[in-house]
């Protein structure tokens, strides 16, 4: 009898923990099914119709510590402008499957291409934030014919992390990810903003949902795989090959470095300097436009949604 009540109580608290982290995506989540490395997988995405149809589409690519949920404040403005908005959760993130495969930006770009082809979208504006910026660059290099315009919002990968961040063995990365907590996620996300606000807590919850899932060990492994992907697959040397019209939106207070915890105090001052990185990327990408947002950190579309939307609208 004691074991029965203990088990019921345990289930109650697990459910309570899960619900406390849970967030509802702002639009219906759909699934695109395909085969990957001889296994069936499902890729989650939102597909939001425009208020007035213009025949144009915009694709929003999320960062490593996020999923499609965090575009929720941006989507309404885009559909009002007449854009069909596609918001994927990349495989390995959010509501998508998290298969044990060889993760690469080439793979994620190809998955995104398959999704767009499945939705009969031949060409779109591609917006990439943070890691999504690296993916957007790779997508634009591989499939330029499918890119109408490219928008990079504080993309990571504007420097080659493996040249100054100490290498970490995969097993160490997996162990670190398995030991993640709500507090550790929140502490990292707090570094994205000059000033933390209660409104940002929802994005921590969106990331922390995975902590209460039975498959979290697999998620932790995928998180380690994708850290390796960012570390080992730089795009900075190929920015000069981008051939589509490009807008760089750079929050000037951003000092994000992938693997920053492994740097010395002196190195932390040297790298992740987004004001300088943005200018350099602007010079590397021929004909690109640079917008610098003073007082804004790593996520302009959350911290200053109105300004972000204004700059995007002007560019489009």
TrEMBL record:
Q: Which domain of life is it from?
A: Bacteria
InterPro entries assigned to the protein according to its UniProt record, in alphabetical order: AB_hydrolase_1 (IPR000073), AB_hydrolase_fold (IPR029058), AB_hydrolase_sf (IPR050266), Epox_hydrolase-like (IPR000639)
BP GO terms, sorted: acylglycerol catabolic process
The alphabetized UniProt keywords are:
Hydrolase
What Gene Ontology molecular-function terms does this entry list? Answer: monoacylglycerol lipase activity
Limits of the AB hydrolase-1 domain: 57-304
GO CC, one annotated term: membrane
Annotated PANTHER family? HYDROLASE, PUTATIVE (AFU_ORTHOLOGUE AFUA_2G14860)-RELATED, MONOACYLGLYCEROL LIPASE
Name of the protein in question: Alpha/beta hydrolase
């Amino acid at each position: 009898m004691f074991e029965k009540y203990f088990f019921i109580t345990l289930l109650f608290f697990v459910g309570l923990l899960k619900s406390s982290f849970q967030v509802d995506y702002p639009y219906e989540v759909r699934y695109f099914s395909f085969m990957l490395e001889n296994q069936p997988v499902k890729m989650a995405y939102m597909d939001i119709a425009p208020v007035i149809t213009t025949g144009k589409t915009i694709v929003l690519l999320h960062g490593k510590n996020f999923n499609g949920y965090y575009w929720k404040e941006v989507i309404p403005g885009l559909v009002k402008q007449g854009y069909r908005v596609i918001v994927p959760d990349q495989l390995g993130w959010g509501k998508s499957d998290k298969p044990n495969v060889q993760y690469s930006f080439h793979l994620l770009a190809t998955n995104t291409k398959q999704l767009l082809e499945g939705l009969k979208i031949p060409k779109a504006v591609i917006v990439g934030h943070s890691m999504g910026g690296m993916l957007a660059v790779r997508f634009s290099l591989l499939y330029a014919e499918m890119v109408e315009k490219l928008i990079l919002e504080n993309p990571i990968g504007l420097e080659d992390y493996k040249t100054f961040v100490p290498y970490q063995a995969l097993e160490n990365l997996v162990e670190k990810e398995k030991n993640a907590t709500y507090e550790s996620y929140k502490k990292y996300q707090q570094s994205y903003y000059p000033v933390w606000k209660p409104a940002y807590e929802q994005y921590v919850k969106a990331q922390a949902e995975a902590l209460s899932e039975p498959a979290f060990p697999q998620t932790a492994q995928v998180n380690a795989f994708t850290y390796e992907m960012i570390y080992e697959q730089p795009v900075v040397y190929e920015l000069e090959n981008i051939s589509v019209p490009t807008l760089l939106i750079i929050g000037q207070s951003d000092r994000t470095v992938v693997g920053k915890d492994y740097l010395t105090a002196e190195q932390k001052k040297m790298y992740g300097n987004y004001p300088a990185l943005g200018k350099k990327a602007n010079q590397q990408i021929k004909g690109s436009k640079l917008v610098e947002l003073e007082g804004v950190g790593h996520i302009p579309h959350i911290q200053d949604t109105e300004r972000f939307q204004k700059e995007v609208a002007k560019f489009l």
